[in-house]
Amino acid sequence: ASDVYKRQEKLKDYDYFAQPHYSYLVNLRYVSDFNKTQLNIKVDLKTETLPISQRNYSNFKKAYFAYIGV
Asked: What is the pTM of this model?
């Protein structure tokens, strides 16, 4: 199994992690904004942009809005 899959299995009980792309698992606490193709993660004063796959967009969006309470 891939490293991301192994990490995802360990973190599945934590509702603030989501997988926007098969290569990434993100902590929703740090997501500053997103659209259908990418998201921005802000840590300290640095912002990183990561892709969101078409396949994972819907689940990522649901997880994010559940996390923020919408």
From this structure: 0.82
Say if residues 34 and 40 touch (Cβ distance below 8 Å).
Answer: yes
3-state secondary structure of 23: coil
Do the beta carbons of residue 28 and residue 17 sit within 8 Å?
yes
Task: With beta carbons less than 8 A apart as the criterion, state whether 55 and 49 touch.
Answer: no
Handedness of CA 35, 32, 69, 17 (dihedral sign): positive
Residue 37: DSSP 8-state? S
- What are the angstrom distances between the C-alpha of 35 and each of 5, 6, 16, 53, 63? 24, 27, 18, 11, 14
Which two structure tokens, joined as six digits, stand for 52? 């969101």
Tens digits of residue pLDDT in 17-61? 999 998 899 999 999 999 999 999 999 999 999 999 999 999 999
